[in-house]
Amino acid sequence: MTNTASVRWHPQPDEASLNAFIAQQIAALATQCIVQKKAFHIVLAGGNTPRKIYTALRTIKTDWSCWHIYFGDERCVPMDSTERNDNMASEAWLSHVAIPKAQIHRMRVGELSASDAAAQYTKTLHEVGTFDLVLLGVGEDGHTASLFPNHEWGETDDAPSVIFVEYAPFAPHQRLTLSAQRLSNTQHLWYVVSGNKKTNALQRWQQGERLPMSVIQPKNGVDVFVAP
Ligand code: 6PG
User: Which one of 65, 80, 189, 195 has the lowest number of neighbouring Cβ atoms within 10 Å?
Assistant: First the structure.
């Protein structure tokens, strides 16, 4: 079933305002979660859009020892590859702050087989339960994380938490991705989208086309932050 009812749209004037706003919102939510339960569980998006947001997070005032980092998807390439989302986040942000290494949960695909890495990540996620925040981007073709149109999305209740994508339309073709069901298990889910090239995908979603974004349905709905 597609669902556009619980999607809240937040247009931003430009990319710089979007980045500054999201960095500030992440910091505020982290503070709230840390005050309440001494922990903040966040799932990071890959791609280029979040890079400047991650850089801005280096300088926020927070208790980094309470942060727990997860990744929404990862490319099946060696652990030191610059094509990996975890290495992008590390270079932009994570290696510059004092989050304990054991709390940065990388997908071990690249040193383990895809199925072993998926099994290990599934176990890690099982221990987490509901995320505090999931960040996602949107691709020009309407994909999010590594859930691509006309592929498997794992939106049913009994779907696996982690899916091995063998034939992604873009290189690297092999990926691991959290399923729609697992991405939906979060208090907050924010899409961060910038650039006019994404307009068509967003319109298709708004018009009710069945896309991965339309089956990711956290109980509190989703927020979409968009800049031209
Ligand atoms: C990835 C992503 C992917 C990304 C979109 C948008 O690993 O590539 O997680 O879903 O968020 O493709 O990417 P850009 O920000 O580069 O446009």
Answer: 80
Confidence of residue 5 (pLDDT cuts 50, 70, 90): low
Q: Give the Cβ contact number of residue 209 at 10 Å.
A: 15
Give the tens place of pLDDT for each residue, 131-180.
999 999 999 999 999 999 999 999 999 999 999 999 999 999 999 999 99
Regarding pTM above 0.90, the answer is: yes
- Ligand 1 site, residue 142, Cβ cutoff 6 A: no
Give yes or no for a contact between 159 and 181, defined as CB atoms under 8 angstroms apart: yes
- Burial (CB count within 10 angstroms: exposed 0-12, middle 13-18, buried 19+), residue 203: exposed
Does ligand 1 have an atom closer than 6 angstroms to the CB of 85? Answer: yes
| Stretch (H or E) spanning 136 | strand 131-136
Dihedral (C-alpha) 102, 103, 106, 107: value to the nearest 10 degrees? Answer: 90
